[in-house]
Protein: PCDBG protein
Organism: Sakesphorus luctuosus
Amino acid sequence: LILLCISGMKAETARYSVPEEGEIGSFVANIAKDLGLTGEELSARRARLVPDVEKQYLQLNQHTGDLVVREQMDREELCGQSEPCLVHFEVLLESPLQSFRAEVRLIDINDHAPVFLNKEIVLKVPESAMPETRFLLESAQDPDVGNNSLQHYSISSNEYFHVYTRQRNDGRRYAELVLNRALDREQQAEVAFSITAVDGGTPPRSGTALIRVVVLDINDNSPIFTRSVYKVSVKENSSQDVVVVVVSASDLDSGTNGEVAYSIFQNSEENLETFKINTGTGQIRLKKTLDYEEAKSYEIDVQATDGGGLSAHCKVEVQVEDVNDNAPEVIITSLTRTLSEASPPNTVVALFNVRDRDSGDNGRTTCELAGEQPFSISLLAADAYALVTSEALDREQVAEYNVTVRARDKGSPELSLSKTLLVQLLDVNDNAPIFTQDIYTMVISENEPAGTSLGRLRATDADTGENARVRYAIEVPSPGTPAAASFMSVDVDSGTVRALHPLDYEKVPAFELVVRASDSGSPSLSTQAVLCIVVQDQNDNSPVVLHPPPDSSAAGELVPRWAPSGYLVAKVVAVDADAGQNAWLSYELAKATEPGLFRVGLHSGEVHTARAVMERDSPRQRLIVLVRDRGQPPRSTTATLAVTLVHDFSDAFLQQDHEPASREQPQAADDDLLTTYLIASLGCVSSLFVLSVLTLATAKLCKARLQAHLSPPSPSCYTDGDFVGDGVDVTGMGTLSPAYRYEVCLTTGSGRSEFQFLRPVL
């Protein structure tokens, strides 16, 4: 149905008329009524006028459908003498695309009066001229056409002449002066009167010139042309000064009366500007090149005058032959320089006409596009075209197009003309941002202050302007998931990732975030990427000793006196909460009672004897083991080991029983007070030794006296059952096994509160 409507539109041409030089805004016609549409439909379908010429003289009111004058039109300026004078245009409707041709005829008004080129016309007439002799007069010029053009001539009253108005083949009128009666130079040598040219307008306009008739003495013979009408054809591309035709006239008189001079009779200013004649030979040449498109023919009046003043006239008809000298013209009537990349196919980009001023095949044209581009040409009407999109557009691939429209004619040789139209594509938000990486990995050292920059996210958007302005954000985690997003922030514009507060490697060694890049288009498009944060460990934790416990009240480790070199005494166990090199531990003996007696494994922490234990070695040894990590700077801690040198397990028990308080002594002493303590201890030991000798001697004497008064002892052994409830538990002390029990034998008459281990009961 649409195609049928369009073809119907193209087939008929709407015709309107308007007087020339109408006022701006003058009503011409109602387009909506002729199309059968309402003003609302015209507005909805974006009706517009597309003129055939670059200048737009008419305007369409989309709301009412009225066609009005936009700019005054001068018919003579637009069309000259051509009639009818038509202004062609097209009415273009969209949704769907329709067009129909229309034309407005400019009705001539009588706005020009006839004008004589010469205000004074001199005519030489011999006194022998017979009545009814006719003399050709210069024509008056009137640019109007039809009835408004020149219609007739009249002269002022005189007794010798009257005027006769005649019409040429092209419709122009000219005047012939007719002699009423014979002239007598002796009576009146000159006759003067006025001639008036009148047009047919309402009211009529006129122009006047003065005619002076000079009466000449008698000359028997007038010049006679060989032909009254010369017909010749000249190609429009003929060069200047080329001979068009040679006219010839002869005079039977002799002497000066028989000498003929040729001249072009001034019947139009255009003829005088285009042609020239050799007064002696009669050769008519071109003064300028001809243009078939401006004038297709010329009619020249040639006058031959002899020496006596007699003259004759002939007519030269010049037909201009068209040649293919005009290339087609591409006239852009409507152009959309910016086009959305989302425009669908068949979107109108430009409307243009192709015109060739030549005729025939020289004026027949074709139109095409140069190169492969997403555009095509659609024929709307004769020589009227639309440039439309042929496929989907993508600004990201091609941002602008230079569309070259080439028009060719069918002349020989073929002429063509190209016109380039710049079409720029407007961006739409059809591309989401793209991260340069799917996964970003950033490293931050633990304990870095808040605001520390880790790096920068980067996403690009193929769009432009606001559609390409990328904003960054961290996705809000779903409820129930770790709030890792609270550790980091992303600058919305630059994508810089910063820490919100210091991180602890021991608590969070690494975590992942989902980041989003969104553009500023409407609607906004976005994409996601994964951000992996790796916390780099720093040496912020000192080693922690697991064994021996720092608050242990045990006596320590037991080493037999017979222990050889390399004997395993104990193992120091420590851990470091850091990772990597910061958690690699080394052990060394920092201080010992006997520095040469023990050694510590550098990496194992095992304490071995460095040599065999000797009797002179102190039974109680105190070792301080330094545990150090390999961080920068390194961190360390110490472990204190109490080692007891024993002969056997009973010796170890006695030492534990007699000197229980020794375990309660502080395991670490101040290095600065050690010397003082040693001196004080030496004095005390010396005093105690003397006191002990005295006490022992006294005790021996007392014991001998008591034995003399007491009965002899009866030995008695306590069996295993007697110590069921009161056995000594040595579990957990030193290195004795909890599975050992011992038999104890006491004498009834013993005066000492002591016992001895005899043998273990396995």
Notes: Residues 1-11, 658-671, 713-762 have pLDDT under 50 and may be disordered. The radius of gyration is 66 Å. DSSP finds seven helices and 54 strands in the chain.
